[in-house]
Structures are given as structure tokens and as C-alpha cells.
Amino acid sequence: MASVVETVDVEVPVRTAYDQWTQFESFPEFMAGVDRITQLDDKHLRWQVHVGGAERQFDTEITEQHPDERVAWKSTDGVTHAGVITFHKLSDTNTRITAQIDWQPEGLKEKAGAAIGMDDHRVKADLKKFKSFIEQRGHAEGAWRGDVPR
């Protein structure tokens, strides 16, 4: 199992960062390799991605979600994938976002990429893109403020 932990500080209030993150269908705008996310209901998402030249589709379930604090998920089919994004208020206008992702690399390309830290670089780059994405807008495009208990 591969594991990645990365952090980025963004210059927006915690509510703005969290609210934008809950707009899962916007992920392709700042996540490399994510072609499309379809939100099926409050707890289920269908992902279409391309990794190492291979296209994949898999479903995830939100396993825990608390406004302005965290969003956790796990895959329900296809790839073995789970993670949590946490939001930490640094000040009224600054937020720290931490991503912890665990996944099972499949095939030689993915295993080699994980071994040399390509997944760490990808997550770090995606968080930097999210930082630019939300700071340029200054506000969230929408929000889901519901709570999903663990």
C-alpha cells in the first residue's frame, strides 16, 4: 500500500476552502489525471481518471464529513483507495489543508511511480493548483454543509 501526506496553506477562510472542496465535480480543474467526477448522492462519487496512460473508473463513498474540518472517503470498487482531507483554521483569512491518501498501486508503472515518489509529487502539485484555484476566485462556487458521521 502506498501512502501520501501533503499540506498546503491557502489564503482564504476555512469555510471557503472547505466549501469549494465539497464541489467534487470541480476537481478536474485542479487535479491532474482526473477527467470527471460525478456526484451520485450525498455520499457516493464516480471517478473517471487516467493514470500512467491507463483510463480507469471507480466509485468512492464518503465515510466521514464534518463542515470546515474533514472529508474522508474510501473506494467501493475498482482501485483500492482511501483518504482524508483536513482543514485547519490558521487565522480568519488563512487555512491549512492536509491530504492523507492511501492507495494500492496496480501494475509495473504505478508500482515504480509510487516507489520513486511520483504520487507524492502529484498530490503536492494538485494541492498547489487548488491553492491557486481558490485564491484566484476568493469564494467557493458552491457548498455542501451536511454532516456524515463516522
Task: Describe the model.
The chain has 150 residues and is of the alpha+beta class. The chain has 3 helices and 7 strands, in the order E-H-E-E-E-E-E-E-H-H. Strands 1-7-6-5-4-3-2 form a 7-stranded antiparallel β-sheet. The longest helix has 20 residues. The chain is globular, with a radius of gyration of 15 Å.
| Amino-to-carboxy terminus distance | 23 Å
The proportion of strand residues reads 35-45%
Mean pLDDT: 91
Q: Give the neighbour order of strands across the main sheet.
A: 1-7-6-5-4-3-2
CATH class of the domain at 2-24 and 62-137: Alpha Beta
Shape: globular
Main sheet characteristics: 7 strands, antiparallel
What structural keywords apply?
globular; 7 strands; Alpha-D-Glucose-1,6-Bisphosphate, Chain A, domain 4; 150 residues; 25% helix; 3 helices; alpha+beta; 7-stranded antiparallel sheet
Helix/strand layout:
Layout: E1 2-10, H1 14-21, E2 34-39, E3 44-51, E4 54-66, E5 70-75, E6 81-91, E7 94-103, H2 107-115, H3 118-137
Antiparallel strand pairs: 1-7, 2-3, 3-4, 4-5, 5-6, 6-7
